[in-house]
Specification:
globular, 6-stranded mixed beta sheet, 6 strands
Length: 362
């Protein structure tokens, strides 16, 4: 007798929520944060829930509109909050510890919270947020499952629709817990399409669903632009709608981290988490320092070394796959087949053609 596939919702999860000064994740600042670690207990018992919370002094005034939502005033943040740099560092450090390839991170509207965290890390510590595991975004999943449902799609509305408990709305810990409960409900309600899909695969599905949603939204804005133009609408309003459509298309391929600049002419890159059992930094972006180190390692290598063996050794040190090392070396104009050597454009094109054929790409 075969057992039913296990759902990721029955395993450990982490939930995140941030309350902020406003709604632009690249410009505005963090005020409160919560990371909730959820570990399963024995069958029939409630899971072990461990919340971690922070209050930060954002270093700027908290608008009255934000205070009306999260209840935190500028004076309270200055008096009781810790420096934003310390809070950001601690939140990122805890996520690195508890968010893994087999422990997904539940975030409602992940593109906002994770982009905000990424921007704050860059602002205070000069580094980007590393996706150390897959993301589960109930908003993204809900839009895919029920695209025609009318009404708002905020956390409160989603919890009401799926009959999920939301306590302490607009507090970081309350919203984080609600996001985890909502993710669990979606997994249990839709076991085949959501609950039993491996988290890293579900992450990729959500990236595609987000892209489709943003492009559809941009198309609707384009329709409004054409209609307003034909009716002699205000030029400034038309320009704003055009800018919003361009922003949506620029962001469409970047889930769950929105691009630093929403210029449609700039290519964006979706960041993927490592796969279970795979290299720790698989799919992670390369920093300039990491690229410089890789280039120096390769060019300083013994030319008599076996290229394949050397790539494997370097891959292990960098937490990457040998294939990723080979591809990055080629981008850096190093010859991946000849340790200690660079390559010219003709040689690079030749190798790229060989590698693409190996992977079935054209």
């Amino acid at each position: 007798m075969s057992s039913s596939p296990m759902s990721w919702a029955d395993g450990p999860m982490v939930a995140l929520d941030l309350e902020t000064t406003d709604i632009d994740p690249r410009r505005d600042r963090l005020v409160t944060a919560a990371v909730v670690v959820i570990r399963p207990s024995r069958p029939g018992e409630r899971p072990e829930v461990t919340p971690h919370t922070w209050l930060a002094d954002p270093g700027v005034d908290i608008p009255a509109e934000a205070t009306a939502i999260n209840g935190i005033t500028t004076e309270q943040a200055q008096r009781e909050g810790r420096s934003a740099a310390e809070v950001i560092a601690e939140v990122a450090a805890l996520l690195t510890e508890v968010w893994t390839a087999t422990t997904p991170l539940c975030v409602f509207n992940a593109a906002f919270d994770l982009t905000m965290l990424d921007a704050e890390l860059e602002r205070h510590h000069g580094r980007s947020l590393m996706l150390s595991g897959p993301v589960i975004d109930p908003l993204c999943i809900d839009r895919h499952l029920d695209p025609e449902r009318p009404g708002p799609r905020n956390l409160g509305a989603a919890c009401a629709h799926y009959q999920v408990r939301l306590e302490g709305a607009h507090t970081s810990v309350g919203d984080a817990l609600a996001a985890a409960r909502l993710a669990w409900r979606l997994a249990k309600t839709h076991p085949n399409g959501i609950g039993t899909v491996a988290p890293h695969i579900l992450h990729s599905h959500q990236a595609r669903w987000f892209r489709e949603h943003e492009f559809a939204y941009a198309d609707k804005l384009d329709y409004r632009v054409r209609r307003m133009a034909s009716e002699g609408g205000d030029a400034a309003d038309i320009d704003r709608l055009k800018a919003r459509a361009a922003d949506a298309r620029a962001a469409a391929r970047s889930w769950p981290l929105l691009p630093a600049a929403t210029d449609a002419s700039r290519p964006t890159r979706r960041r993927l988490p490592p796969r279970p059992g795979g290299p720790a930094n698989s799919h992670a972006s390369w920093t300039p320092d990491q690229e410089a180190t890789l280039r120096n390692e390769w060019l300083a290598a013994d030319p008599a070394a076996v290229a394949e063996t050397l790539r494997k050794d370097i891959a292990e040190r960098h937490g990457r796959s040998p294939g990723a090392i080979r591809s990055r070396l080629l981008r850096l104009m190093c010859d991946p087949e000849l340790p200690g050597h660079t390559c010219d454009e003709d040689r690079a094109a030749q190798l790229k053609q060989i590698y693409d054929a190996e992977y079935g790409r054209r």
